[in-house]
Amino acid sequence: MKIRIGDRVKFLNDIGGGTVVSIENPKMVNVENEDGFEIPVMVDQLVVVNAMQEADLVEEEEETTVAVEDDEDWRYQEELPELKGFVEINIQEDNLEPEYYMALIPNDADAPIKSGVQAYLVNDSNHTLLFHFSRLDNHYYETIESGILEPNMRFNLTELKERDFDKKPTLSFQIIPFRKRNKELPAYLHREVTIDPVKLHKKGAFAKNEFFAKEAYIQRLNEASFSEIEKAMENISHKEIKKAIRQQGDLKKPKLIMGSIVLESLDMREIDLHIDELIDDTAGLSNSEMLRLQIEEFHKQMDKAIKDRVKKIVFIHGKGNGTLKTQIYKEHRKRYGKYMIQDASFQKYGYGASLIILRK
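Now predict its structure.
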């Protein structure tokens, strides 16, 4: 038997009845009783009034009672199908990018933890999902639900009760998306979400959304959180980042000039002319071409410093064989002779930098 919003129902184990005003999930609805109070009731504890009237006339086979929402855009997947004779359904032409969400809906928005929270998996994509949903408890994953979620559907995974929030619960999602025909296989997803009950009490935690008629806490599963990105970046060295950059594109051509590091100060500006600070790859460049790029940067930074009325500018050129330093002094005599040039602080730079005083 299917129960829908607006049905008149009677309570099996209590006196009276009422009208179904909303559906929490296929197994629970909210009923407004004769006194005007809205109460959550399990659907197997209800009987539809008009069904009772027909009971004396028609002998029907016993069937499971479920709640069904009238929803044009989103539907509940009431049970998990077996993968036999796989056929894609409910495909939407403009929904090409796979997006999967965890959704939390409180049984009572005014007391979300005390009343319990319904957890859903939302498949906002044209992919079919093989999924495994579990909870991490004392270093073990306890399976709660697993199966197949069809395209553009949502499934009620479990109800988190008040006792579940005694500790911050960690929910684990494993998802394999696929289509009947696809150019590329989407990546397998494993995502763990730790729910802080304090956040669920904050104003705005549950908000209007495109998946449910009620306000819900929505979290995208196939998108790394900021903390996860930070943690991953901690394990990547500067050298590995440069190596990754060099592996892309045509290595025979110079890459985009990045611009040297500039300390924005009117008293002192420091420019690093080492070639690996100016371009991200030197493959295919001759020594003369690299020197040309360094001198071009020298002129650019000198002109900018003069325009900005910087007092002093230090060019870090390194000790090396002295070629770059010699060329800097040569260019200084030709174009900037009125400014004094000398070795920069030996204590700070050794013999690897030159100081030009632009004004006092």
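The mean pLDDT is 79.
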